[in-house]
Amino acid sequence: MFTPSRKSHSEHEGRFKPDDMFFTLLSVFLMANEVSLQETVVGFIGGSVVLPCFSKKPPITIQDITVLWRNKYDLNVYEINKGKVSVEGQNQEYNNRAETFPEEYKTGNFSLKLNNLQHTDAGKYLCYIMSKESEDWIVELLIEVSLQETVVGFIGGSVVLPCFSKKPPLTNQNITVLWRNKYNLNVYDIIKGKGSVEEQNQEYNNRAETFPEEYKTGNFSLKLNNLQHTDAGKYQCYIISEESEDWIVELLIEGV
C-alpha cells in the first residue's frame, strides 16, 4: 500500500516542482485504486472552507478508519488513525487550523474544514481513505477575496442570514449544511436533509431555525430570533457536497 512521504517542503526543492511531485505521487497511488473526479472548492482569505471527502462504502466501524489528508507538497495536513484524530506529524502550517467531523466518520464523511484561509493554502489536496479497497479524493482549493453579505438586525427582533446553493435541485440525502458563528460555535446543522440541534451551542437553543420546505431549491438560509448584542459578527454557512460551497454573512445589531 502506498504510504505518503513525510518529507518537508524544503527537501523537495531542487528535485521536483510542486505539481510534478504531486502528480508523481498521485500516479503511484492510483495504479491500485479507483480515482474520483477532481473537485474544486472556493475559499476566501481569512474565512473557512470544507474540502469534501466521502467514502462510498459506509457504514464504517471506528477501528477500520484511517484517513490521510495531504497538500500539493505531500505535507501532512491532517490524519485520522483508527477512528481517532492525530496531529502528531501535522505540518505546522495547519496547526489549529484543520479539523474534521468525528460524528460523521461512521457515515463515511471525512471532509476537512480549513480555517483562517491564506493565499498559500491554494492548490491541490488529496484525501486517502485507507481500507481493503482504498479510495481517494482530489480537491483543488481556490482562494479569493471574500465577497460577504451584510445583514442588519435589531435587538429583540429576528433576521434571516442568507445561504443558497448554486446547484439545485437537491435530494434530501445529499443535503448537509453547517452554520457556524465567529467563534466557530455550532449555530445549526442540517444533516442528510434534516435539522439537527444535537451539537448546537446553547446560546442558540430555540432561537435558530431554517426552512426545510426550501432545502430542495438550495435555500439553507438561517432565521435567528430574539436577537442580542452578542449575536453580532460573522457567520458561515458550509454546504457540503461533491462540490462544496460556503457563504459568509456579517450580522450587524442595532437598537438599545
Describe this structure in words.
The chain has 256 residues and is mainly beta. The protein has two domains: 106 residues, Sandwich (Immunoglobulin-like); 107 residues, Immunoglobulins (Immunoglobulin-like, Sandwich), CATH 2.60.40. Helix content is 7%, strand content 37%. The protein has two helices and 19 strands. The strands form four sheets. Strands 1, 2, 4, 5, 6, 9 and 10 form a seven-stranded mixed sheet that branches. It has a six-stranded mixed sheet with strand order 11-19-18-13-14-15, with no helix packed on it. The protein has a three-stranded antiparallel sheet with strand order 3-8-7, with no helix packed on it. A hairpin with a 5-residue loop joins strand 13 and strand 14. The protein is globular, with a radius of gyration of 19 Å.
